[in-house]
Automatic annotation (TrEMBL):
Pfam families: CCG
Positions of transmembrane segments: none
The protein, known as: (Fe-S)-binding protein
Organism: Pedobacter segetis
Cysteine-rich domain: residues covered: 3-84, 127-221
């Protein structure tokens, strides 16, 4: 299958190793991966700030860059959800609709499309799983704990395939980290306090690493960990699944 790799802005600028791990994972499972070089921001920051009417340029460029592929995959739940729910192009409405249906966050692509049941990866560390809001509540990657329904977690299922990993149990599995895109700028104090609470849940359960599907959430938590001079580190789930040696 022909897969286009969509790399979010913050991954491209600050965590390129996450994009590389995603590429290598997809290739390991037989995907023919392309990277459209004209891709840029998906427009989510503007949309989140109430300026969706100004995202037409981002929408048009996204459609032109990613049309014609079987699937589009990105290591980001928030950007994928934005494209699924908000992508539109008046000149190419059918192409935009197709893209919104064929774009996948990495974990959902591995579990729902590729049906991955085996991984050649080992990560001998205590790891806490941060369930990001966009992935959990938007893309339905895991069950919400407030619901009286059977629990599930697609990221957790994949991590269970990794040898030697020890997943810790958190007190509040699906609590928001406080990042929220532009929320962390508009409501800095609230955002930081929420992040501290999220970090503390992992640290008191002796996590060596905090992982998740969204590097934006992990970037927020990483800043708090650094200010606390904590030994706990962050790592994107793609790096663990790809067999990164810590």
């Amino acid at each position: 299958m022909k897969v286009a790799l969509f790399v979010p802005c913050y991954v491209d600028q600050f965590y390129p190793n996450v994009a590389i791990a995603t590429l290598e994972l997809l290739e390991k499972f037989g995907c023919e991966v392309s990277y459209p070089k004209n891709q840029t921001c998906c427009g989510q920051p503007m949309s989140n700030s109430g300026f969706e009417h100004l995202t037409s340029g981002c929408n048009k460029n996204f459609v032109e860059s990613f049309k014609g592929f079987d699937y589009i995959v990105a290591p980001s739940g928030s950007c994928v959800l934005h494209i699924k729910e908000h992508l539109h192009d008046e000149e190419h409405p059918s192409e935009a609709e197709k893209i919104s249906k064929t774009i996948y966050e990495l974990v959902s692509f591995l579990t729902d499309v590729l049906k991955v049941e085996h991984l050649e990866a080992s990560f001998p560390h205590k790891v806490g799983m941060h369930q990001s809001c966009h992935g959990q509540r938007g893309l339905k990657l895991s069950q919400m704990t407030e619901l009286n329904a059977p629990p599930f977690s697609k990221p957790q299922d994949l991590l269970n395939l990794v040898k030697d990993i020890e997943m810790i149990e958190l007190d509040r599995k699906d609590e928001c980290c406080g990042f929220g895109g532009t929320f962390c700028v508009a409501e800095e104090a609230v955002s930081a306090k929420m992040g501290v609470d999220r970090v503390n849940d992992h640290v008191r359960h002796h996590a060596e690493y905090i992982t998740g599907i969204d590097m934006s959430c992990l970037m927020h938590l990483e800043g708090i960990l650094r200010r606390q001079k904590s030994k706990t580190k962050i790592i994107h789930i793609a790096e663990i699944l790809n067999g990164r040696k810590a």
